[in-house]
Design goal:
The complex is a heterodimer.
Chain A (H helix, E strand, L loop, with lengths): L2 H17 L21 E2 L8 E3 L6 E9 L4 E5 L1 H6 L5 E10 L4 E7 L9 H12 L5 E6 L4 E6 L14 H8 L4 E2 L5 H6 L4
Parallel strand pairs in A: 1-6, 4-9
Antiparallel strand pairs in A: 2-5, 3-4, 3-5, 5-6, 7-8
Chain B lengths: L8 E11 L8 E11 L4 E5 H4 L13 E5 L2 H11 L7 E3 H9 L10 H7 L7 H12 L6 H25 L5 H20 L1 E2 L2 H23 L5 E2 L2 E2 L1 H10 L16 H10 L4 H12 L12 E2 L38 E8 L2 H10 L2 H8 L3 H8 L13 H16 L3 H8 L3 H14 L1 H17 L1 E3 L5 E3 L6 H26 L3 E6 L2 E7 H22 L7 E7 L10 H10 L10
Parallel strand pairs in B: 1-4, 4-5
Antiparallel strand pairs in B: 1-2, 2-3, 6-9, 7-8, 10-14, 10-15, 11-12, 13-14
Classes of the chains: A alpha+beta, B alpha+beta.
């Protein structure tokens, strides 16, 4: 073996022995920390927010919604109760949506009335939600036309990264403590003027 | 670790020494050495006359023996003076103590005395230690009694080491400890080598610095009027800012923020501020007489390995030529027939973050050779055909954002840095989070690990305990810095063992030296080994390096200090200095 070969060999051995001591930087691997879904807002996105809606029909669910505009709260009303206070609730489809910061929220789109038509605001909202399945958009109210203007993002933005939760889980978080299952619910009592 | 791992023995070694001719910057002169076999305690003492006659250490130093010391690079420097081969296996109890306590609050520090107190072990006390150290530094001649006292003192240190090894043994992760010990050998080689300094200019600066300071103030301050003598008057500065309509950051108390960092940031935003910032920095940081330059005109000082929490070296700012103001680095000059090369890993922290997090977009950006522009392209802010020239301002903003993330900067600081509204800074930071999601998940996991696990580590075992409270920014930055330090250590080991003359490690760079005719070959070899070191630390991911070559008669020059250097050279009253401009 020449001196050069011998040096190369000892260098190889040295490198191999160093490499064998390497520890992975797998921080958190044994701790099992995961981000919890703690908040799911319900409502129309603000005018500056770009958003997408989920393409799957499994990520939509129908419900009867009672909106408290003063406190900006939305209550999900069970069918039996909704029948009793039909003038206060609105049948909607709740669509899973997500913004650019990966915040998930539900957009309620009112269903057509008995005539099978929606008012222009609801109709344009339904169109926006449909459009947002394919494109990043934001919407702003246009009082002149009585509907929403849709602005599509011009850049090539990446597809949204949806959380693993299904629509049921999103609904559970969104309406935690906000389900009206009986007429004696304080919100109903208040709206009926009984309190 | 057990004694049977080293059939030829475990030897605890301590030297007493002083710098040659009593001048810091000169190599050490051993005065005596005491060796104690562990665990049996057999002890041998040697005075300097015996040591200088020995061609090899009087104990085994091959692969079956272990050399143990506290701050081994100092002991190994004595080996260099004596012309002895380094021990094959080195265990440094200072380094291991740093490793097992890094991040914890220590009441008594990291000196041998402090470590003994930490473990509740007997010690000779600080006063006695100072007295004996002074006696050694007096350089003799010593009486018979004094020689006996010095030997006894040296022996007390190895006895202390023995007790220390007894209690620390169970904490020692032997193979990785030996790797750190191997780095201490590299450190000794580098410390012995030192950095070549232009003696003529250095002497002129030393002799005329007082006068130069006054001239500098007179020249630069004529546009500001804020100095009285050598005192920077805050009220005058405030008046200057008002009359020039420069809004200046203030502390909560309302006083002007006069930190150098603030001056640096403001100098970027207002060009008028730059000269006064440079002057202030030069006057405050420049303690020229503290620079330790040996009789052979080489700057040598302790590199203070493992002193920083990240495991990086932390040499004294005033003793190390890379410590004071950057313009002073112009003093670095190769001797006749020699050349220097400053080799640094390209975007080391970005590369480490990419590789360790396994973020594919980030790795791709690094491999593109221009991660800043790549980030702009990946996030959709620049077209795929963009270049540094077509999208210079976009690239600058994205570069600032990448660096801001590395430094843990928020949107407000970033907006000042890029001189753009906070909304733009926020947008850039959001783009970083979105483009490099896997990196951010990994960085978040590091925070979880630090908070819940109480510890973070680097690839070869350097670690930090986080129980004493470490801010979010430091936690997120630790993996990059600590692995950067591991990379530098492995590069130093590979390069010094391949006979490359390293003058100094400088954060993520190495300054090497070679005869001019061998310089190219040394650079090539160094770059290959630095690449190898990056692969080792990053599990196969390669980092590239950039080279700045300095051939005699040129000098090293940091571009940030070039103007100041020129200014100072004009003020030196010596015709010879004219050749240095």
């Amino acid at each position: 073996m020449t001196q050069q070969n011998s040096n190369n060999l000892s260098n190889e051995i040295s490198l191999t022995s160093i490499k064998s001591l390497r520890m992975p930087a797998n921080y958190g691997a044994t701790l099992g920390v995961k981000k919890l879904l703690t908040n799911v807002a319900v409502g129309k996105p603000k005018k500056a927010i770009f958003f997408r809606t989920h393409k799957s029909i499994d990520m939509v669910f129908p419900g009867m919604l009672l909106e408290q505009k003063e406190s900006r709260e939305n209550y999900l009303v069970l069918h039996a109760v909704a029948q009793e206070i039909s003038e206060l609730v609105r049948p909607v489809q709740l669509h899973a949506a997500i913004d650019r910061q990966n915040n998930v929220f539900l957009i309620p789109v009112p269903l057509p009335g008995e005539s099978g038509t929606r008012n222009p605001w609801h109709e344009s909202l339904a169109q926006a939600v449909e459009h947002a399945k394919m494109k990043w958009i934001r919407i702003t109210a246009n009082m002149h036309i009585g509907g929403y203007d849709i602005y599509e993002a011009e850049g090539v933005l990446p597809e949204p990264e949806w959380p693993e939760h299904d629509i049921e889980a999103l609904g559970d978080v969104a309406f935690r403590g906000k389900i009206i299952s009986a007429l004696d619910h304080p919100v109903v009592q208040s709206l009926l003027g009984r309190l | 670790m057990v004694a049977s791992d080293f059939p030829e023995g475990i030897y605890l070694v301590d030297f007493e020494f002083h710098p040659a001719k009593g001048k810091d910057g000169n190599p050490p002169v051993p005065v005596c050495m005491v060796v104690r076999s562990w665990p049996n305690g057999e002890t041998s003492k040697y005075w300097q006359d015996e040591l200088f006659k020995m061609r090899a250490p009087p104990f085994p130093v091959g692969e079956k023996a272990l050399f143990v010391a506290f701050y081994a690079s100092a002991e190994l420097d004595c080996f260099q003076t004596l012309g002895w081969e380094y021990p094959e296996n080195v265990l440094d109890l200072f380094v291991e103590f740093r490793c097992i306590t890094n991040g914890l609050k220590l009441t008594h520090g990291n000196s041998l005395l402090g470590v003994l107190l930490y473990f509740g072990l007997p010690n000779i006390g600080g006063e006695k230690k100072d007295e004996m150290r002074d006696l050694v530094l007096a350089r003799g001649p010593w009486s018979k009694f004094e020689k006996g006292a010095i030997l006894e003192y040296c022996e007390s240190d190895v006895v202390a080491l023995s007790g220390l090894l007894n209690v620390m043994e169970k904490h020692i992760d032997l193979p990785r400890s030996l790797l750190r010990g191997r780095y201490m050998k590299a450190v000794s080689r580098i410390q012995t080598n030192g950095i070549p300094i232009d003696e003529e200019i250095y002497e002129a600066l030393l002799n005329q610095w007082d006068q130069i300071q006054d001239l500098l103030i007179a020249e630069i301050d004529q546009d500001y009027g804020v100095y009285e003598g050598r005192t920077f008057k805050v009220s005058s500065w405030e008046a200057y800012l008002i009359s020039n309509e420069i809004p200046w950051p203030r502390h909560e108390s309302g006083r002007l923020d006069l930190r150098d960092d603030t001056f640096r940031t403001m100098a970027r935003m207002h060009q008028k501020v730059a000269p006064i910032r440079e002057l202030r920095s030069s006057l405050s940081e420049m303690r020229l007489a503290n620079l330790t330059v040996g009789d052979d005109s080489r700057n040598r000082c302790l590199l203070s390995p493992f002193r920083a929490r990240t495991g990086r070296n932390q040499p004294s700012n005033s003793k190390f030529i890379f410590g004071p103001s950057v313009w002073l680095r112009g003093l670095i000059k190769p001797k006749e027939g020699m050349g220097l090369a400053y080799i640094d890993w390209s975007q080391q922290e970005f590369g480490i973050a990419a590789a360790l997090s396994g973020d594919p977009a980030m790795m791709q950006a690094y491999r593109s050779g221009d991660p800043y522009l790549a980030f702009a392209i990946q996030s959709g802010a620049a077209p795929a055909i963009a270049t540094k020239h077509t999208h210079e301002s976009v690239r600058e903003q994205f570069k600032a954002c990448v660096l801001a993330v590395q430094y843990g900067m928020g949107e407000t600081s970033l907006s000042s840095r890029i001189n753009q509204p906070v909304a733009r800074a926020r947008q850039l930071l959001e783009l970083h989070r979105r483009t490099y999601k896997k990196f951010w998940d990994w960085s978040d996991a590091a925070v979880d690990e630090a908070v819940l696990g109480g510890r973070l580590w680097a690839s070869f075992g350097w670690q930090i305990f986080t129980e004493e409270g470490l801010n979010d920014r430091s936690i997120r930055n630790f993996p990059m810095q600590a692995n950067g330090a591991e990379m530098l250590r492995i590069a130093c080991i590979l390069m010094t063992e391949a006979d490359i003359q390293i003058c100094a490690p400088v954060h993520d760079a190495l300054l090497i030296e070679a005869p001019l005719e061998e310089l190219e070959e040394s650079i090539k070899k160094s770059q290959r080994l630095m690449q190898e070191a990056s692969q080792i630390v990053l599990d196969g991911f390669e980092l590239n390096s950039d080279v700045k070559k300095i051939c005699f008669p040129d000098r090293y020059m940091d571009k940030r200090g070039a103007v100041m250097w020129k200014k100072v050279m004009h003020l030196i009253v010596d015709d010879a200095s004219a050749t240095c401009l």
